[in-house]
Queue: 3 jobs
Job 1
Amino acid sequence: MSQIIKIYNAEDEDNIFEFKGVDNAGGVIYYYEGKPFTGIIQHYSKNIMVGEEEFTDGHIGGVQREYYENGQIKEEYYKYFGKLDKYYKEWDINGNLIRHSIWQNGTKIQTIIQ
């Protein structure tokens, strides 16, 4: 079952999760309540969400998002076992798409907007 966990400062993350080793891509493996974490971690600054990370079986995997403090999306990308995969998009603070590229297993395949 997927869970959403909200993190309001770095100390919270250290207290909520256990870090058990490193995956093949060099990423930390996250454990929550004794099991590899599957779900979403939402990061907040001054009660404003500034980021979201998806995890599957303790690994960063899935859609990752970062936001400007005005709530506008800044970056969105997909990771698979800690490596960029599928796509990477970046917007300016006004919401204009300024970068878009296609990735496969950590390698850039195509630049759509540079």
Note: The mean pLDDT is 90.
Job 2
Amino acid sequence: MAFDIGAVQNVRLNPVQELKLAKPAVDLYVGQILKSVVVGALKDDQVTIQINGQNINAKTAHHFAPGEVLDVKVLQIGEETILQVLSDKAPPSPIQTALAQNLPRQAPATALLATLNTLAEHPNLPANIKEQINSILASLPTISQLPKQIMQAVNQSGLFLEANLLTAAHTPAAVPPAVLTADLKAQYLNLLNTLAQQGITPPSKPMATTGYEMVENDSLPLPGAVPQPHHRMEPKSLQSMADMPVEKLLSVLSEHTEHALARINTSQYSHLMKTPDQPYSLMLDLPVRTPDGQEAIPLLINEEHQNNLMPPRFSISFALSLNDLGDLQGTVTLHQNTIDIHINADKPATLDILQDHHDEFSKLVNDLGLNLGAFGLHLGLEDNKIDGSRFSLLDLKV
């Protein structure tokens, strides 16, 4: 079946996703199902679609990606033929809806940590807010403590607050109060509540940019993401923030706290969307204290299945941005008593330094009663592998 394009005078895709054709030179009947393909976008409100090999321009209030296949159903024939765009997508679940709300608002805790550090010594800060800021900073593990305290740090990262609250409600002795007090999500919520009591709330517009510099290649906590280094705020931005009136600083603090909280929520919802048959995977930001200040280290914990006869392997991937060594990505994989280490760096000199310390890495692993297996050094950082085709649900472009 072919359309006579000369007879198609106007095709419009309205907000309820209908195609309107003026006197098509073909015989159609109500209820007939046709297929169309989105060829490309002409401008914001117009796309080109293809039906039976013929290209037709269509006005639209919706976003359709090039290559997207649309099933259309004939609703009405006559002077004006109306084709309805059918959708085979199930309505979004509550978790999908929550993810769609949080994803545009989330951001790494990098800016929040810089804001907390700036405010910690501010002379005009309200006492209750200053106390909460110091409590958050003091609860962060140091980089030297992290290897021995990583399980505790992950447990208090905010991802398990609700689970710990549920456990505490049934078995109070199983979750000491200090665990809930130190939980980052709980602390962020308490800080936002304190600020709200003083009339300071985050902006309603997603991702306002007051005092915040977006990371260009972010480690979105979504399937396929690869940890990317979080870069600190530039000194000029920090100085600009320090020069703000305290009221403005508290507004920035509220915004950055809400971004970090949405980041935790996004990680939780993304994890909950996994099916039981999928390997375990968890992505999070782990704030730590370093000699140069606070850092948010992105971590990815993965379970890797080889086959049914072999036990699964677990790996931890991370990313760092260091003053002297540049940007780094690392993956440590544990399989029985063997550890494989792979490191990506953006500077060739960094790889040379790491290679020179191969024997020290081997000795460190041996001291733990393990063996060093692969020791791979790679130039260039690994990019994200997020599948953006599923984002039509979220109405986002990546």
Note: The two ends are 37 Å apart (CA to CA).
Job 3
Amino acid sequence: RRPRCALGVAGLERPPLSAGRAGRTALGADSSARLPPSPPAGEPLQRERQAGEECGLARQVSAEVEKWVRVNRRPRKRKRRETEEVFAKLLPDQLLLLLEHLLEQTTLNPRTLQRLERTYHLPEQDAEVDRRLFKVRHRWCELVVKHKYKKAYGHVERFLQEDQAMGIYLYGELMVNEDARQQQLARKCFELSKEQMDRSSAEVVAEMLF
């Protein structure tokens, strides 16, 4: 069902096309009651179409999130006849939204994280091609840190060395978990990259680490 467009000014209805000259005259009699200029032809439909497409993309992400939640809940030993989840190919913005939803999950087991990594090739997302993919890598590293997915700690180390600016937030997350291995990783990465960091960023990170 299409949303109704707001036509005319408050309290006025656009006269029906069948009203013809009489309808136009009735409106024209009161100079203060003027309709706003009509938008360019096709503009409302274009906006409506764009909004519909965005809603469709968001619904697709919601469906994918539900699939991942189901995968995460499954026991290690599954029944043979159980249907395997098939995941859709996502656009960068959709992938980012998916990871943000998954960050809200209390627990993701290592098998789920491994499959997530392989399905979307998360460590290989090239920020030089699309800057949004940099945010995708950042969200992936957040998932790795939150759920202590040790197999992907190398991805976190690479991220911290390649982008010192956004890495500041990740340093904080590594330290707040109070996990000895994560804190060791944070200090190691800082020692390797502090010379390339600007002074203010280096000072902020140093205060968190030491």
Note: The mean pLDDT is 79.
